[in-house]
TrEMBL record:
It comes from Aeromicrobium erythreum. The keyword Isomerase does not apply. Belongs to the Gfo/Idh/MocA family. Pfam families: GFO_IDH_MocA, GFO_IDH_MocA_C. Residues 148-341 form the Gfo/Idh/MocA-like oxidoreductase C-terminal domain. This is Dehydrogenase.
């Protein structure tokens, strides 16, 4: 969202923002608990999920009401904002419906399944004058935010090389056929593309070369479970984004920026700074889920939603950032399809 775009203020600064959570799956259940217990400015009013029993299982222990239809909260006077944590294919429609109903929206990544969908969601939110935040949680992880500050302040000098990686815990999908095509780019690496963009402020991604394969199910028709992407930026910086669906040691998220005056690294995969020194050497325990490793970042991003709603201002990360990250993911798909370098779109017209 353009920082100058006015956002309607619906909540008095002294009252909590009343939130409905839409999509009570794995991350939705975590967001509901975070909203109810860890974000003082939020009041979880309702949980929505059409899957039988899903909303009740999440809502009841948290003192919220359960609904199976999203219209029940979009028409409710006691809901200021909607947190969309439903399956990605539903994001565009839910964001547009929420904005049309005058509700502020937080939407998990990706904000749509194409650049056209994300642009439609952006337009709906802008037309309605509501806050539209997107779930790029790494921006709210303290060390990633500190790294960005170091880049912005010029401490690292001119940005030359950047890295971001995501490794999902475990041994990969049990059934490769249920993983939608291009998931590694649109659902996983989308975080890394946003992280690279975040760590290289003022520049935009120009083109990519993507390489990916299934190392877990060799020869599978659509599954890509490991990927390495090189992103070239408008300021000449070279970024690398890397993902794996199978890290046996845990959930691993890291970043790095090399500048002309120094280097900064983020993330070490350890769940705490505790080190156990014994006969086997020095060990650290690792986080085995995103909600464990990035627990505080999830709370911080939802607190940012409430702050933006209360203050009547655009959120720290919104539709433009969602569009820019998805544009890199789309270029990766193009690169994989053509086998060569692919341009990153900066507008829907360019994509079409
Ligand atoms: N930012 C992050 O770190 C992060 C982490 C995990 C997932 N996500 C994103 O969150 C979303 C959900 O992921 P998940 O792992 O929880 O998936 P999930 O499959 O566990 O849950 C999705 C839920 O959405 C519900 N749903 C589907 N369509 C709906 C609709 N129209 N209205 C209401 N509910 C609907 C389903 O019934 C299901 O309960 C995805 O978009 C995913 O990309 C983001």
């Amino acid at each position: 969202m353009d920082p100058r775009t006015p956002v309607r203020r619906t909540t008095m600064t002294s009252t909590p923002v009343r939130v409905a959570l839409v999509g009570a799956g794995r991350i939705g259940a975590a967001h509901a608990e975070t909203l109810a217990r860890r974000v003082p400015d939020a009041h979880l009013v309702a949980v929505v999920d059409p899957r039988p029993g899903a909303a009740t299982a999440v809502a009841t222990p948290l003192g919220a009401r359960a609904e199976t239809e999203v219209d029940a909260v979009l028409g409710a006077a006691d809901v200021d904002a909607v947190v969309v944590a439903a399956s990605s294919v539903a994001h565009r429609d839910l964001v547009v419906a929420a904005a049309d109903a005058g509700k502020h929206v937080f939407c998990e990544k990706p904000a749509g399944m194409s650049l056209v969908e994300i642009d439609e969601a952006r337009r709906a939110a802008t037309a309605a004058g509501v806050v539209f935040q997107v779930g790029f949680n790494r921006r709210f992880a303290r060390e990633f935010a500190q790294a960005r500050d170091l880049v912005e302040s010029g401490t690292l000098g001119e940005v030359r090389q950047l890295r971001s990686l995501t490794r999902d815990p475990g041994r990969g999908p049990s059934d490769p056929d249920v993983v939608p095509p291009w998931t590694i780019f649109t659902q996983t690496l989308i975080h890394d593309f946003d992280t690279l963009n975040f760590l290289n402020p003022g520049a935009h991604a120009v083109d990519v070369v993507a390489t990916a394969d299934s190392l877990l199910f060799p020869g599978h028709a659509t599954l890509l479970d490991h990927a390495t992407v090189v992103v070239r930026y408008s300021n000449g910086a070279l970024g690398t984004a890397e993902a794996s669906f199978a890290a046996v040691y845990g959930y691993d998220v890291r970043g790095e920026v090399l500048g002309s005056e120094g280097m900064v690294t983020m993330g070490e995969g350890a769940s705490s700074s505790l080190r156990v020194h014994g006969q086997g050497g020095r060990t650290a325990s690792t986080a085995h889920s995103d909600t464990e490793l990035l627990r505080d970042a999830y709370a911080a991003e939802l607190a940012e939603l409430c702050a933006a709603v209360r203050e009547g201002r655009p959120p720290a990360v919104g539709a433009d950032e969602a569009f820019a990250a998805f544009a890199v993911a789309q270029a990766c798909i193009d690169s994989m399809t053509t086998g060569g370098r692919a341009a990153v779109a900066t507008s829907v017209l360019q994509e079409a």
